[in-house]
Amino acid sequence: MSIISRIKWVMVVILLNMPLPLLAAEAEATETIAITSEPTKCYEAVWGSDEKKKAGLGLNAGQAVTLCSGTTNAARVVECFLEAWAHPKNGGLGLTTGQAITLCKTNSLQ
Fold it and tell me: Which residues constitute the signal peptide according to the record (predicted)?
């Protein structure tokens, strides 16, 4: 793994572990932040949400970030992933998780 790749992953880990008040300094503790951007909608769909009791698809945080980063259409990315990852007997391609992520991440769909 190159040094640039390691730096990128360290930055992702730092951003994912940053407390929400640092990202939204004016948000009060009782205020909920609406998830409206396409990358965050996608991430919530594939990673899940404890607060909303959504299970997600079983991806780890890094896989969810890779799949969802830069998406402009969360539903399209999630649908592509589900089709690519599903077993061929269920109408899918039967790809591994990593292959399905590579196939369906936004830069692959454009």
Answer: 1-24
pTM listed for this prediction: 0.63
Domain boundaries, the chain: 3-109
Pick the more confident residue, 5 or 77: 77
Alpha carbons 24 and 33: distance in angstroms, whole number: 9
Taking the C-alpha atoms of residue 93 and residue 18, their distance in angstroms, rounded to an integer, is 36
Buried-state track 6-21, b at ≥16 Cβ within 10 A, e below 16: eeeeeeeeeeeeeeee
Phi and psi at 49, nearest 5°, equal: -150, 120
Q: pLDDT: is 78 or 5 the higher one? A: 78
Coil vs helix vs strand at 27: coil
